[in-house]
Every structure is written in C-alpha cells, then in structure tokens.
Hints:
Layout: H1 11-21, E1 34-35, H2 38-48, E2 55-59, H3 65-73, E3 76-81, H4 84-94, E4 100-104, H5 112-119, E5 134-138, H6 144-152, E6 160-166, H7 167-173, H8 182-188, E7 191-199, E8 204-205, E9 212-219, H9 230-240, H10 248-256, H11 260-270, H12 283-296
Amino acid sequence: MTESVPQEKSLLAQAKELLRQNQVQAKKSLGQNFLINPAVLDKITRASDLTERDLVFEVGPGLGVLTRQLIALSGHVIAVEVDRRMVELLNKTLGSPPNLSLVQQDILDIEPAELVRQESFRFSSSIPRPYHYKVVANLPYYITQAVIRRFCEAELKPDLMVIMVQKEVARNIVAAPGDLSILAVSIQFFGRPRIVDIVPAGNFYPAPRVDSAILKIEMYPGPAVPVASEADFFKTVRAGFCAARKQVANALSQGLAIPRAEVLSLMQKAGVEPQKRAETLTLEEWARLTKVFFEEKN
Length: 298
C-alpha cells in the first residue's frame, strides 16, 4: 500500500510530514536538501524535454518529488539512492511503478552501462535500442563534481544532463577562456553546458547555505576537439593547471617534468604563447599542446 500525503498540501508540508511519519531526518553528510518549489521542478523537466522514449538516470532521489515527475514523463527511470532510509521511504510512497528501478547503491561505485544492462529487462518497448539515456537530478552537493565526471567519462555516456548544482559550481563549469578551470575544461571537452536558471536556497528544505542553479549539459557525440588520447589530453591539462597563476610554460615544465627550454620549443611548435596562463587557453590550444607533448615528442 502506498503511503502518501494529500496533494493539495505544499511540497514543504509534504516533505515535513513524510519525514515525521517515517521518523527520518535529512542528513547533512549526504547533502540532503529537498526541493519544495513545484515551479522549479517544472523548469527541470521542461529543460529535460522528456518523452516515453527516454531512459532517465536520477541520482539522489531523496523524498521522490522529482522522481514522480520523471516517472510520469519518461519511459523508464533508474533512481540511484545511497541512503537505505530514503530507499525504504520511497518504496512506501512511490509503490511499484513498472517504469521505475529503485537502486540502493553509490553511483560512484558502478558504471552506468552496467546499471542499464542490469535493469534492461524492465524497460518497455517504447525505449529504443541501442539504449541511450538522460541524467536528470537534484545532485547532492558533496558529490556533484564526482558524479558529473562519472557520467562524462563513462563507457556509456548520457545524451543530456539536467542537474541541480551549487550556483558557483555551475558558473565555474560554463566559464569562458580567461576564467577556465580544470573542471570547466573537463566538462566542456564532453559537452556544451549552460545555466537554465538560478534557484535561491529558500526553494529547498532544509535550506542550504548557498544558492543553486539548474545546469544543462548537452553532450557531444565525441570530444569537442580531436585528440589521439583523452588520457594524454587530461594529463596535459592537469599539468598546465598544477601551479596556480603561473605562466603555462612554467606549469607544464613542472607538471610534466620537462626542461623549460624544451617546453618553450614544443609550445612554439603548437602555436601557443608560453606567457599565457592556463585559465586563458581554449580547448583547441590544449589539444595542440597534447599533440606536440605526447604524439610528436614521442
């Protein structure tokens, strides 16, 4: 039997009542801040452009407010929740919809492709093969960057991610050359990010200390710039950012353990000015540096 709260109550009232009924408190250590504004939920689902043909991953479903919307709008939802208490609560409140797979696991401990294979016997015929998926989630703050990297670097990558993250993290990810970070380069290598909307802290219960943003990442079918080895590309980027605010030539020399004179020669060959700083380089410049440092040098 499904345990529910009358729909005419506000999402805040519903959240408080569900937590009280099930003797559960939000865990700060798990970044549990539950969305309580239906208008924000609508913005998330509209940005996700869901149909019955869509397979959706939700990470950290919490009380299931977004999960209900995803179940109603998509073909199948794989909701991954690490907190056993929340899984038990969701089993009570959501019942057993045929298009929901509720998985108690840490998303960082499993490949998305493995979860798809594991749950595929539940998928309806409306979901086309080969399987593609979208990620739609109000991400726990403490694992935001790790979760994004997990999906970007996965064997089976999503077509789209619409995720709630801290406002400053979102701004960091969408930054342009001049303000780039390793995180921004890492995400923009795989997809095109943009901020859909800013979401003030008061839209959550309990309210976090910072505002959030709905971030939409449209994933590319392949890397944004052609490279022979993604591992070498990111090794170059990490080296370039290893010494904060240094000229990129000095950082690369330090990070790759190559004499500075050799670095200067290779940078000239790549057409990248050695006086630049890492945060100003474009993805194309990082790709050219990777080529001369790892392909042509060898």
